[in-house]
């Protein structure tokens, strides 16, 4: 063991090899505190060459590697097991912005760069990197790619898969895939970078990426609208698309229980409470006042429970903060069984009705919190109080999940829309995913990681 630590220190420097319990502890528990592990060490390389050297060393010694970015996974995707034999490889030192090509609207960054730092670098170049998440101050680009993160603006800009032009990846044998292309059009064979987006570090370690940038919008219009039903909410989505096209950047929904929870813990900040609240944002070049006037005129012709339009950037940020605070506010009420599901937007209302009825029949009085990115069909669907209190909540988890995921499957959806699968959902993925797709995934794992050393114990090991 001492020899291994010595070899690790030779590669990254002794100060970047952590072995003491107090030093490694922050890397061994997932963001939700659900998974806890142990490790032989935590190493923090500073370059792709150092990552490759570490991987070659581990391959020679049959030591498993758990890549870790900002450790914001909600599914235990970046947590080692309890054996104490796995190596945690932190990308936190690899934060460089390698290149910004404004003419090509692209940026090349290292995997350890935080999402917020990439947004800032783009903004300083008068460009927009549109991925936006509540954890953007701590989540890292490598992790965003590894889970195919989505966030608040998928409706207009797409997920990380759509935002990624090229990747640099260290493979399980230490070879480096050099594919940091800024091309938007390339028909020269298979697009191999796609294998690593959404793979959660199980096929290789992403060390850098070339990402799309966009013109920086200088006009926005933001409204918080109350409507009477989920059906009406989805009708509004279609109507807004028809009226404003790709100026519609975000379309978020919050159920009445979500609003009441926000009102309880954030008294005075909620404009009103309605059966469903919509957070709508338009963005474009030009003048915000003009765009706001167009939205105001359109809203005047619609049926709604209530509504407010932000009149300043400060008011806009207050409305968005309500949405961003939803997850943390719910945590104040205790644990919940969380689902990061997706269904076609057209099926959202039917799914909500059917799944709610099924859960209430099985667990009368349970509390269901529904909020999320309705514009792309991604809902955060959280269930608590399946009994009189939450003391035995997770005893009911399998039964709750079966109800929710059965309904998701019925409506042609997915059980993992943007947070990944990790160790939490592997068995469920095996139950619902197309068998041929599962077979292809297993073949890719065997081909690229025959020793099974890349982030073992996660979903590719469970399907």
From TrEMBL:
Q: Please name the Pfam families in this protein's record.
A: FAD-oxidase_C, FAD_binding_4
UniProt xrefs under Gene3D superfamilies: 3.30.465.10, 3.30.70.2190, 3.30.70.2740, Uridine Diphospho-n-acetylenolpyruvylglucosamine Reductase, domain 2 (3.30.43.10), Vanillyl-alcohol Oxidase, Chain A, domain 4 (1.10.45.10)
- Which GO biological process categories is it annotated with? respiratory electron transport chain
Q: Residue limits of the FAD-binding PCMH-type domain?
A: 35-216
Q: Which cofactor does it need?
A: FAD
Can you name one GO molecular function term for this protein?
catalytic activity
Report keywords, A-Z: FAD, Flavoprotein
Q: Family membership, please give it.
A: Belongs to the FAD-binding oxidoreductase/transferase type 4 family.
Q: What is this protein called?
A: FAD-binding protein
């Amino acid at each position: 063991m001492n020899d291994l630590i010595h070899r690790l220190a030779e590669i990254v420097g002794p100060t970047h090899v952590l072995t003491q319990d107090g030093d490694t502890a922050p890397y061994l528990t997932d963001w939700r505190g659900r998974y806890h592990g142990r490790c032989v060490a935590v190493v923090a390389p500073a370059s792709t060459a150092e990552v490759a050297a570490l991987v070659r060393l581990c391959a020679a010694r049959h030591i498993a590697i758990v890549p870790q970015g900002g450790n914001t996974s909600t599914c235990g995707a970046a947590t080692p097991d309890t054996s104490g034999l796995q190596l945690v490889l932190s990308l936190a030192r690899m934060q460089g912005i390698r290149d910004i090509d404004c003419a090509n609207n692209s940026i090349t960054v290292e995997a350890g760069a935080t999402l917020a730092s990439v947004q800032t670098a783009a903004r300083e170049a008068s460009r927009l990197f549109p991925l936006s998440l509540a954890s953007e101050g701590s989540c890292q680009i490598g992790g965003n790619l590894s889970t195919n993160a989505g966030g608040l603006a998928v409706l207009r800009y797409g997920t990380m898969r759509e935002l990624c032009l090229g990747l640099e990846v260290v493979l399980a044998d230490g070879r480096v895939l050099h594919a940091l292309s800024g091309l938007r059009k390339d028909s020269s064979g298979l697009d191999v970078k796609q294998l690593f987006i959404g793979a959660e570090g199980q096929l290789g370690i992403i060390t850098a990426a070339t990402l799309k940038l966009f013109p920086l919008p200088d006009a926005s219009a933001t409204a918080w609208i109350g409507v009477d039903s989920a059906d009406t909410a989805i009708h509004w989505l279609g109507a807004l698309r028809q009226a404003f096209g790709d100026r519609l950047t975000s379309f978020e929904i919050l159920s009445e229980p979500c609003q009441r929870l926000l009102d309880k813990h954030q008294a005075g900040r909620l404009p009103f409470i309605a059966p469903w609240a919509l957070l709508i944002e338009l963005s474009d070049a030009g003048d915000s006042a003009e765009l706001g006037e167009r939205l105001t005129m359109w809203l005047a012709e619609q049926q709604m429970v209530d509504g407010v339009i932000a009149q300043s950037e400060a008011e806009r940020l207050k409305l968005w903060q309500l949405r961003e605070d939803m997850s943390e506010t719910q945590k104040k009420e205790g644990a919940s069984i969380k689902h990061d599901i997706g269904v076609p937007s057209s099926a959202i209302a039917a799914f909500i009705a059917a799944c709610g009825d099924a859960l209430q029949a099985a667990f009368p009085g349970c509390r269901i919190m529904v909020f999320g990115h309705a514009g792309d069909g991604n809902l955060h669907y959280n269930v608590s109080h399946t009994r009189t209190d939450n003391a035995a909540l997770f005893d009911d988890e399998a039964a709750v999940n079966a109800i929710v995921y059965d309904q998701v499957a019925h409506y042609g959806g997915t059980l993992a829309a943007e947070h990944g699968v990790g160790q939490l959902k592997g068995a469920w993925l095996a139950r619902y995913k197309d068998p041929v797709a599962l077979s292809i995934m297993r073949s890719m794992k065997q081909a690229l990681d025959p020793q099974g050393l890349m982030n073992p114990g996660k979903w590719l090991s469970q399907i």
